[in-house]
Amino acid sequence: MMEDRTTPLLVYPYTLKKVSDRKGSAVVFIREKKTDCANYREVDIIPRTEAAEQTARGKRGKKRKVNAPKQKDLNDKNAKRYLVQLGNGNFRIGDLHTSCTYSEENLPGTVEEAENIVTNYLRRIAYRRKKLGLDPLKYILVTEYKYSKDGQCLKRIHHHIIMNGGLDRDDVELMWTKDRINWKKTSDPEYRASIKQLGWVNADRLQMNENGIEGLCKYIVKDPQGKKRYSSSRNLDRPETTREDGGEKQQRDQNHWKYSRNLNAPEEKCNDFKYSKRKVEQLAKSPDAGLEEFRKIYSNYNIVSCEAVFYEQTGWHIYLKMWKKEPKKAGQGGKRSGNRKKNKAAPDIKAQEDKKSN
Asked: Is 255 helix (H, G, I), strand (E, B) or coil?
């Protein structure tokens, strides 16, 4: 009897069907991974291989937050994607993007010194918000810096901060200083001019399109030559994940993040039984990459991006981005309610006409 040398399938509490037999990368099933952060959602429809499942074996998990990237450095595509999810899930029109730089005399000697300065700046803003009765500060901070050719001095170090609105933009800019501010005198232009700032600072209102602030998030991390580090307040809503596939929980490295506890966290929900390989291939090869069908599947969302990508080892992947639709207000139920009003009013109109004719 000949020895069976075929690649064995993993044993699960449910049956998985092997749909491909490429060397070392047999596709076991198609996974739908939904990542939600407030009203923003990303959906990945991706093949899973035996190698990937062997790496991520474990109990069926419960709903959990998406693990934040373990490194502060924004040199990884997953870290950048997480940043976009946080930004779109927590910030809206009216919130602010603040850029802070240093003058020559105030230029920090180390990255740590710069981060201490910007942390004090954020504390000052948080305290001012509290004094004015505003919501607690929510922010994402990205610090960008370069070293000189001799590797000694920092060059062009600056910060990008996305924060919730409510404060006057002039006040946000005024607080980029080491000086103590007497807020009772800030209505005097001469007093404001006397405050020495650490460098150039500019606070702009967020500009959003169908992709939210994805463009801004990618802009502040786009320079491949410089180094970037980021942190966020602990009150941001963050992604969470429900694993139905047996994914192993990863430990979050808390030392690399400053969490604000009021931020929305992204949540992931995985479904390994919704799509077949044939169905995904059919959708991916359609002229619109399956957009019309996905609009029916995710009918409560406005889909703003639908991208199909083919990889030689695993096949077709489909990536979607969408926003939850606003609930209809009372009285906007459609034609049915409108016809009722019209029919109800019709007898009154006829009665008035009969009265006039009499």
From this structure: helix
